[in-house]
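Record 1 of the preview.
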Amino acid sequence: MPRMGSSIERISLTVNGTSYALGPLEGLDDLREQILRAARATGGFLNVTADGGQRLSFFVTSATAIVISVSTVALHADTADGTPARCGEDAFSGYEDDDIPFDII
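->
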């Protein structure tokens, strides 16, 4: 029986036409809540973490155009990041014996 592949949701935020891929720990419900709270208060900050770890803070008003998009990314069963494993290669195959960049214990 074939195994079901895993997937993760990736969230992107577009603020006034500029898009940002968000970090994996950003939650959709939290983003919505922060945006609504800021707009209802006639201004407030939306704090998020970008995919590369950069912390971003947007001042949000009722005139700020924000789009939240969520895409489901299928992960390959062989690796945690979804990159298929290369057949016939292991983690050390690209290095010569004396060239491995770390110690093997």
